[in-house]
Amino acid sequence: MGMADEAVRVRGLCKRYGAVTALDGVDLGIRQGEVFGILGPNGAGKSTTVEILQGHRSRDAGEVTVLGRDPASGGRRWRSRIGIVWQDESAPAELTVRETVRHFARYYPRSRDPEEVVGLVGLEDKAGSRIKALSGGQRRRLDVALGVIGDPELLLLDEPTTGFDPAARRQFWELIRRLADEGTTIVLTTHYLDEAEALSDRLAVIATGKVVAEGAPAGLRERHGGRATVHWSEPGGGARHEETETPTGTVAELMRRFDGEIPGLRISRPTLEDVYLRLTGQLDEQPGEAAR
Ligand SMILES: Nc1ncnc2c1ncn2[C@@H]1O[C@H](COP(=O)(O)OP(=O)(O)OP(=O)(O)O)[C@@H](O)[C@H]1O
User: Fold this and answer.
1) What is the four-CA torsion angle of 180, 183, 188, 190, rounded to 10 degrees?
2) Which residues line ligand 1 (CB under 6 A)?
3) Atom 27 of ligand 1, residue of closest alpha carbon
4) What are the angstrom distances between the C-alpha of 278 and each of 46, 154, 248, 289?
5) Which family does it belong to (predicted)?
6) Which residues of the chain have pLDDT under 70?
7) What pTM did the predictor assign?
8) Disulfide: which of 63, 244, 264, 277 matches 283 by Cβ 3.0-4.6 Å?
9) 237 contacts: CB under 8 Å, gap ≥ 6
10) Which atom of ligand 1 lies closest to the CA of 159?
């Protein structure tokens, strides 16, 4: 990957808050057009990372390039190329959805069509409603609308679906996919593994200020997942299992021994959740054991 293809490049990023080391040498490379997930437990340093990428927080060490510039000295034009979705946007409660989106469009040199953006986030039916009358999930979609109204090349989302019900979360995923299909580079932090797996082309797992794994979700599972477990039953009724790098070999051996069908045969692989818990130090056992 050439640096020119990178929307975000971070090398050796460090950030301290007094005695707390929030980021301890973070490296990231985020390609143009990809959806990149930053996953990690509470306090891992996700928000700090995103705020530094936005240019809203200083750093103590490291190199950071976002759309070709250092966020610390990005400037207005650079800022207009980046979409930020604020956690608690203080949009005026008395304005309607449509009025608000139109109002924010004026801040950008090259904004999208407000009507189109209201449709994109699925708020057509609420276009005439006042903000104070929106539900939490609808409110969050409006926040996303305000994040994309400037037609950003890069969208930064910090825990976008916290507090959503399952249906709202699915709808939000659709929205992210739509934006990704349009070519927007998207960086999102999340606590939710299923969300990271459903949306991300690649993801980084952060724990205590360090990237402990990075890659495509399936690849992460393969590289860090460890071994498969073969389960079966012995004729006397005893359930057995064996952890192995070569489950096919184990099954072949069992087939010979049982001379055919193996009672209770099941092969389990570590889930991404097993991998995640192990990588973030929240699980000590072998991944095969965590599935049970
Ligand atoms: N403004 C601040 N002042 C002091 N310490 C801070 C500040 N912001 C964050 N921290 C600390 O830095 C560490 C990383 O925090 P950060 O908010 O980046 O983590 P996070 O991964 O986003 O967590 P969460 O999932 O809980 O949102 C934590 O230990 C946190 O307590």
Assistant:
1) 20
2) 17, 20, 22, 40, 42-48
3) 42
4) 18, 31, 25, 11
5) Belongs to the ABC transporter superfamily. Drug exporter-1 (DrugE1) (TC 3.A.1.105) family.
6) 1-4, 87-91, 283-292
7) 0.82
8) 277
9) none
10) 27
Q: How many CB atoms lie within 10 A of CB 159?
A: 18
**ipTM of predicted assembly, 2 dp:** 0.96
Ligand 1, from 16, 46, 54: best to mutate by most atoms within 8 Å of Cβ?
46
Q: Is 245 exposed, middle or buried (0-12, 13-18, 19+ CB in 10 A)?
A: exposed
How many C-beta neighbours within 10 Å does residue 284 have? 9
Q: How far is CA 158 from CA 209, 270, 289, in A?
A: 16, 28, 32
Distance of alpha carbon 143 from the chain centroid: 18
Residue 58 alpha carbon to ligand 1 centre in Å = 14
List Cα–Cα distances, 252 to 256, 257, 270, in angstroms.
6, 9, 21
pLDDT in the model for residue 222: 78
Which pLDDT score is estimated for 89?
Answer: 55
For ligand 1, the distance from its centroid to the CA atom of residue 47, given in whole angstroms, is: 7
Torsion region of 62: left, alpha or beta (phi above 0 gives left; psi -120 to 50 gives alpha): left
209 Rama class: left (phi>0) / alpha (psi -120 to 50) / beta: left
Round to whole Å and give the CA distance between 212 and 276: 10
Q: Let me know if 32 is exposed, middle or buried by CB neighbors in 10 A (0-12, 13-18, 19+).
A: middle
Q: How far apart are CA 166 and CA 169, in angstroms?
A: 5
Give me 106's structure tokens: 């004026």
- Paired with 16 in beta bridges are 21
